[in-house]
Design a protein that fits this description.
By secondary structure, the chain is α+β, with helices and mostly antiparallel strands. It has helices spanning 3-8, 10-19, 104-120, 152-165, 216-221, 249-277, and strands at residues 35-39, 51-57, 60-71, 82-88, 129-131, 135-147, 168-174, 181-190, 198-205, 209-212, 224-230, 236-240. A hairpin with a 5-residue loop joins β11 (224-230) and β12. The chain starts with a helix and ends with a helix. One of its GO terms (biological process) is TRAMP-dependent tRNA surveillance pathway. Keywords: Acetylation, Cytoplasm, Exosome, Nucleus, RNA-binding, rRNA processing.
């Protein structure tokens, strides 16, 4: 298979591989790229964050930093804190992105992350409340893509979860006499993570063929994509399908089954890394 045909007729080039149940990068259709995660103190570059993680999915590299700040709760949610996710796709991560305000893809990714947080109940906003109607935590979750080669959503959800698992919040109390908040930096507690959502993305080729963990090239050639988010109980948290080829119920069920298997792999990877950095 010549490089020329890949440039001139990329779809035909791919189809030749797919007929043989493999892909140009050597992977099988259901095979993920090598996945690595670094958490917290491994990342000296963002020491100002309260929690951080760097995830690599093949060449796709995403960093997540979580910053915790204090604020008054909203009037209509007096017993809740806030979680504010933001996905950035800077021009340095791929030629397709431009400098300036967030583009459509970054906005869609930020909304997807917000939906995952809400639907999975990974963090219950009531847990972020310190004093009802007076004080709560705001978690700013900045997810920045450093190198884009497809499957941004899986990498982003993974980086977010790993960074949140690394957050330690200081003890905060409100002084009864002065009414002011007092922060005890010597006493820190980990964030309460109620659920561990993991995203698994698929590209759809020629309306029928599913391939897992697509590269940027595969996403561009696909007739559609679908992302399935599950938690550790195998519960379906969300299905994200931005247009493209419709999927039969059987195909969607196949995606969900594969996503549940992928969840176990990702959870095992996070647990292993956290164990390696936890003081004995």
């Amino acid at each position: 298979l010549s490089i020329c045909s890949r440039t001139v007729e990329p779809l035909e080039y791919y189809r030749r591989f797919l007929k043989e149940n493999c892909r140009p990068d050597g992977r099988e259709l259901g095979e993920f790229r090598t996945t690595t995660v670094n958490i917290g103190k491994c990342l000296r570059s963002i020491t100002t964050a309260d929690g951080s993680a760097l995830v690599k999915l093949g060449n796709t590299t995403v960093i997540c930093g979580v910053k915790a700040e204090l604020a008054a709760p909203a009037v209509d949610s007096a017993n809740k804190g806030y979680i504010v996710p933001n996905v950035e796709l800077p021009s340095l991560c791929a030629e397709r992105f431009r400098s300036g305000p967030p583009g459509e893809e970054a906005q869609a990714a930020s909304q997807f992350i917000a939906d995952v947080i809400e639907n999975s109940q990974m963090i219950v906003k009531e847990d972020l409340c310190i004093a009802n109607g007076k004080l709560a935590w705001v978690l700013y979750c900045d997810i920045i893509c450093l190198d884009y080669d497809g499957n941004l959503l899986d990498a982003s959800v993974f980086a977010l979860l790993a960074a949140l698992k690394n957050v330690q919040l200081p003890l905060v109390t409100i002084n009864e006499e002065t009414g002011l908040s007092e922060v005890n930096l010597k006493q820190k507690n980990p964030l309460i993570i109620r659920k561990h959502p993991v995203a698994t993305s698929f590209a759809v080729f020629d309306d029928t063929l599913l391939i897992v963990d697509p590269t940027a090239e595969e996403e561009d050639l696909a007739t559609g994509t679908v992302t399935v988010v599950t938690d550790e109980e195998g519960r379906l948290c969300s299905v994200h399908k931005p247009g493209g080829s419709p999927l039969t119920g059987a195909k969607l069920q196949d995606c969900i089954t594969r996503a549940i298997t992928r969840h176990k792999e990702v959870k095992k990877l996070i647990d292993k890394v956290i164990k390696s950095i936890t003081p004995k």
